[in-house]
Amino acid sequence: MKGFIPGAVLLLQAWIVSSEKCKDGTRQSPIDIISKTARYQEFRPFKLENYENYSMRKGNLKVKNTGSSLKVYAYGDEKRPTLTGGPLNVAYEFVEMHFHWGENASMAGSEHKIDGKSYPLELHMVHKNIHDDTIEEALAHEDGLTVLGFKFEFVDDKKENNPAIDTLTQMAKAHLIQPSAGYAKKDKLPDDKDVSIVNFLPFLMDEYFHYTGSLTTGTCDEAVNWIVFKVPLAVHKDNMWDLQDLLDKQGKPLINNFRPTQPIHDRPLYYHGTHLLENGDLQKGSSKTVRGHENPSHVNYVLTVPHQQLGQTATLARWPYHESEAALLEQVKETSGAPNLNKFNGLIIGGTVILATFSLIMG
């Protein structure tokens, strides 16, 4: 039976894996997000376009054991998925997503912490500024990349998990143990299975922290807009065992591939959501906002994919919202005939994008 290792040894191993080439700087990542130090900010809803069209079955996602992580890459000539809204002033296109994890069933595996708490697994969805032709160009300026960070929490094996993460980790164990194994493409999928980007996005793109930071691998370039989601996604321990069976470039188990948290220095940390307001951890001030936290409406923050695919989104470790997922889905279905659903107008005040109005134009 797999057990635990001392936290100090695990942390040292993680530091060796992930920080050998990191530059010094004052905007390094990851950080320990202390909720009470965040500034409340109501950002526009995110708008995600074309994410539903990227999957292994469709032939535009491929998977690789890089020796330092398990990565899922977009490839081919099709239009890339694009991300706008939230705190972002320009559009970003999806490049790849990868995972960070620990050892055994340890809770230490995520890169970011929230109020000192670590999680067993963290997913990073890496996006490139559309005005940059390459990742190298994007790394040359502070708005070059946007990374969506999602933490995972163990759930009971009897709790239904999104089948895509089972498919992904089992396929990696079957075909990608060695970093030299190349890419796994759709020919490695079981006949009735698929892995798509949508499978790893939450039903609601709400409840998150935002700060400016760096990559956590390589030279740790300070070129990243970080969006770290507060509500954890669900993962089974079997998925962790599959990932920990992968090998690194030295032929050793690929474990503890996370970087320890870095000082935040004087960087502002922003919070978008309602939970911290409801709990009294943060105050939003006396200014009028589009939604009140006393009775918040979340439908504006539902993931912007065709409603038929909302049932394929990532499973949350727990559902923390007042409105049920079924009720929100019904609201989306009722308005799905509107050509401009989830179109928002915004203002830029002091360099920050602020939600102004929600425009639902009926056909």
Provide a quick synopsis of the model.
The chain is built from 6 helices and 17 strands.
Written description of the protein model:
The chain has 363 residues and is of the alpha+beta class. The chain has one domain (21-322): Alpha carbonic anhydrase (Carbonic Anhydrase II), CATH 3.10.200. The chain has helices at residues 7-18, 135-138, 163-175, 237-244, 275-278, 325-335, and strands at 32-33, 39-40, 44-49, 61-65, 70-74, 82-86, 92-101, 113-114, 121-129, 145-154, 183-184, 208-213, 224-229, 233-235, 270-272, 343-349, 352-359. The model is unreliable at 1-19 and 338-363 (pLDDT under 50).
Note the topology.
Layout: H1 7-18, E1 32-33, E2 39-40, E3 44-49, E4 61-65, E5 70-74, E6 82-86, E7 92-101, E8 113-114, E9 121-129, H2 135-138, E10 145-154, H3 163-175, E11 183-184, E12 208-213, E13 224-229, E14 233-235, H4 237-244, E15 270-272, H5 275-278, H6 325-335, E16 343-349, E17 352-359
**Cα-atom radius of gyration:** 20 Å
Number of domains: 1
- Please give the number of β-strands: 17
Biggest sheet layout: 13 strands, mixed
Low-confidence stretches: 1-19, 338-363
Percent range for β-strand residues: 25-35%
Helix content: 10-25%
CATH superfamily: Alpha carbonic anhydrase
Summed over residues and divided by their number, the pLDDT gives a mean of 86
Which class do the helix and strand fractions yield?
Answer: alpha+beta
Q: Give the H and E element order.
A: HEEEEEEEEEHEHEEEEHEHHEE
Which fold name is given in CATH as the topology?
Answer: Carbonic Anhydrase II
The total count of helices amounts to 6
CATH architecture: Roll
- What is the molecular shape? globular
In whole angstroms, the N-to-C terminal distance is: 60 Å
Give the CATH class. Alpha Beta
